[in-house]
Design brief:
The structure holds two protein chains of two kinds. By secondary structure, chain A is an all-alpha fold. Chain A has helices at residues 3-7, 12-20, 24-45, 50-64, 72-95, 114-122, 124-134, 138-149, 154-161, 165-186. The longest helix of chain A is centred in the middle third of the chain and has 24 residues, at 72-95. Chain B has helices spanning 18-25, 37-46, 52-55, 58-68, 85-91, 107-113, 119-129, 155-169, 172-186, 192-196. The radius of gyration of chain B is 23 Å and the shape is rod-shaped. In chain B, 45% of the residues are buried. The chains are: A mainly alpha, B mainly alpha.
Chain lengths: 190, 262
Amino acid sequence: MPILASVIGAEFTTALAAAQQGSEAAFSVLWRDGNPVLLRYLRVAAPDAAEDVAAETWIQVVRGLPAFRGDERAWRSWLFTIARRRVIDEGRRRSRHPVTSLAELPGAQEPRTEDAAALALENMATAAAITAISALPSLQAEVILLRVLAGLDTEAVGKLVGRSQGAVRIAAHRGLRRLAQILATTGVTL
Amino acid sequence: MPNIPWPARGDVPPVGDPAYDALLDGTLPPEDAGGVRPVAEVLAALNSAPAASELAAEASALAVFRGGIGRPAAPARPHRRRRPVLTSLLSAKFGATAAAAAVTLSGAAVAAYAGVLPASMQRLAHDTIGAPSAPPGAHPAHPAIPVGPKAPGSAAYGLCTAYAHLKAHGSAEQKAVAFRNLAAAAGGAANVTAYCAGVPHPAATPSGKQPTHPAGKPATHPSHGPATHPAGKPATHPSHGPATHPAGKPATHSTGKPASTS
């Protein structure tokens, strides 16, 4: 069960409306629900800049919050749409080359930052999971994270990554299969 | 990454297997996952309860929220600089911090920044840079910031005095947040000295310029601790004590410098 679904659920509509009216407590609910998920996604998508990209994402969210309309599914899609754009912008700033896929980001396969180490101390199983996902080809890693971590359905993921629903499903299956192979070979225990 | 020899294909389900769909839908828990149990466990670990480090930036995010709601998207300020913050920070060899910071260059963030300061400093910030105290639910008023880059109420004044104060009295994380915002406004860590030249030390600041505001933190700020989350955390977590920390951060939380690196 994705973290998001278990924490907000029916409370989302109320929290969103209150946050749009300026309620800090309501925004805090949305933030505490979304930020850990965002960070875990970014530890794979932009490992050396996860915290910064997350902060930049929330700045954009705050700017667009008054005009946002939608249910929780739309909210999650919006959050990750912004995050992906910020990841690409971050990649451009670093390399000064246009980045068209996550695979081009430096260090995309190795989340070896201080932040990852801090997470590892607090939650080794999650850190190990992120490391394992990071070993996958970028599209496979991304669709798995968006499906399982962000709780987005195949249609929403397809729109985010610019692929058909069928392609999303295939990429996710390939990723899970490769994950199974990696785990069987290296014997990762959580 | 080392070369990993793949096991025979028959060891794992093929693409298209319904077990994968169930894993992706979140309907196949590890205990029922049979041959794909290791994968199921990895996916379950992705969805563990939030760690303290993943919630540490909350005060900073709330500061952004306070400064952002009700304001136009991009206020034009004459001294605003649009430099790539991260490249300037990296090139200046600024010591890496794990603290997330709301890094913006807008005047709105300067006002919002007051929210991450300790209570004593918030009053100073309110009096000097005119940051709104933002009671819950209210739209923050536009602060009246006097003209002049180094005058009381300017971005430089607020950022420099806040950093000087936190350098002496703040936690490592508050100091890191303060420096990051300061470096962003200055256009790089190397420019901070010049940026703050001419700004008086906080001790010399005249106070009481405006009517005193109540301490800026609303009482509705949610407590920071495991109480609201499912009990998914290992027992070895340090317990978080929100009661003594005005910024809502656990007292024992250290960012960025874990003892073991991997």
